[in-house]
């Protein structure tokens, strides 16, 4: 009987499944991938050999004001490594440049100074100019255009009133944008709440092409690329990470071309055929990705692809930061999944409620599958109100699941549901 580790908060939980029950353990190849050089070496190599673009140091020459967009506290971007190298590359071409680091929060809360020091290091926090996107502060945004979907594009003025715009991030499968990284730093990263909401409308999320691993015909992705191009995003750096949050590959250069190269790398290692079983166990990658329930539909959506009809999904998500958003919390406890979906379906795109997309995806999944949420932080009465079954440990969760599905039920385990791309052939 193997012991399988499921990432949880800043450690992991241990799962034991009898051999007769265990059908499959889906682990992406990215976790076992061994790069040929150090993390910093990979980033330097990418910056020295950009894809479809001149080097960043050459782009920086003669530019006065430069904006560098980076991710917030909910993302595992290894900025302690990447930011110093990006800043060094810029200043090697333009030592006098005024650089602003803009934290892309989307609709998330502001990143605290403590979190910034954890993410960037003390030297960058103490010596660099840092600004935090606030999607709800209207005076911070400029109306640029109408996006292909018909949504209005309002973006942080620091991205417009600069001479050079670039961004950094990391690439992984994304449950409705296809893949993260690249253009996502701009939309939703540094857009107003109106733009984010409309891009994430019920209609957009419900589109069959708004799914993990799908870029072609994905209306959410297409709006994101259009927006990032419209404000002349000149350069991007994206990394691929293993299960230890270590850099195993880096891709720099043109917004689209370098992102496509990163996507191809991730797809080659993360895509697998789903194993459909009555019970599926997964986790949301540990901290910071499992710090709230709002982030957890990513792994639950992966588990959905592997769950048989009426199957049970066991989800390990610490939720150390609670539900993750007042709008999401209000929606997810508003009634049964069918009622929540019906309510959201009636909302026009331009009236989209912040964070409704996660409630929409949960409602879709909860209509078909029972979800057992393993959490030692979130109040269990609140979990029940969200139409889920609470458990304090994996042992407790598995007992509940086997009691429902029977002692002989087969189990698929996806230790890191965020990194796996389950695609039916």
Tell me, what's the shape? globular
Uncertain stretches: none
Q: What is the CATH superfamily label of the largest domain? A: LarA, N-terminal domain
What is the name of the CATH class of the largest domain?
Answer: Alpha Beta
Reported for the largest beta sheet, the result is:
6 strands, parallel
Task: Give me the secondary-structure topology.
Elements: E1 3-8, E2 11-16, E3 22-25, H1 39-48, H2 56-60, E4 65-71, H3 79-93, E5 98-104, H4 113-120, H5 122-127, E6 129-132, E7 141-146, E8 152-156, H6 157-160, E9 164-170, E10 173-174, E11 178-179, H7 193-199, H8 202-206, H9 219-230, E12 233-241, E13 247-253, H10 255-270, E14 271-272, E15 277-283, H11 297-304, E16 307-316, H12 326-332, H13 337-345, H14 356-366, E17 370-374, H15 380-385, E18 389-391, H16 394-405, E19 411-414, E20 421-422
Parallel strand pairs: 3-19, 4-5, 4-9, 5-6, 9-12, 14-20, 15-16, 15-19, 16-17, 17-18
Antiparallel strand pairs: 1-2, 7-8, 10-11, 12-13
